[in-house]
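Q: I'm a student working through a structural biology exercise. My instructor gave each of us a protein and asked us to get a predicted structure, then write a short paragraph describing it. Mine is CDP-diacylglycerol--serine O-phosphatidyltransferase. I'm not confident about reading structure output yet, so if you can add a plain explanation after the tokens, that would really help. Here is the sequence I was given:
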Amino acid sequence: MKKHIPNAITCFNLLSGCIALYFAFNNQLVNASYMVSVAAVFDFMDGMVARVLNTYSEIGKQLDSLADMVSFGAVPGAMVFMLLTVSGNTALGIPESILPFFGFLITIFSALRLAKFNIDTRQTSSFIGLPTPACTILVASLPLILENGTLAHYNVILNPYVLLTLTVLLSYLLVAELPLFALKFKNLSWQDNSIRFIFLGLSIILLALVKFAAVPLIIVLYIILSIIKNTSQS
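A: Happy to help. First, here is the predicted structure for CDP-diacylglycerol--serine O-phosphatidyltransferase. I'll explain a few features afterward.
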């Protein structure tokens, strides 16, 4: 019985992603963002429970990737699609009716990222390229920033050039040969986890100071700290 528990949690991740997708295409982007958060919690829990119960399985690995493809692949693409749609602007001479579909570049590169992860033996204790949940959490923060932000936030986030640049940048980072540390604690010693403690501490401070607007800054911080860590070890 216990071997099915992690897979059941993964299915809740998938269900949360399906609900987020529904909200996204109905232009309820704030609700979609909240469901992304729920999906991320289930995504974290399934792996943790599998380790605790020692119930790792190949089907669980494949199911996790399939669930992530919806929650952290289709959903962010749909959210950027809707953000570009509601912006009501064109960019680079691309017709208004076609521009939103560029958001699905994130979906395509998320699929490439997940496929690459499944066959890459280098990514057992760290990541090569931006994890799909991190990419999606950044995208999901945008509607929350708009909901709680100012006119300046609105003008920046719904600028089609900003959205296109963000889409291309995230798509690149998903498949980039960029080593990034994982938030997996084998123990609580400072020596083994200093970079993780620093990241978590700074992230908490940023969230306390600027709330949802901290999320893009936290992703940037994650990349910078990973580069520093890689440089110090080389």
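A: Here are two points you could use in your paragraph. The chain has one domain: 2-177. The chain has a mean pLDDT of 89. It's a good idea to check both against the output above yourself.
Q: Great, thank you!
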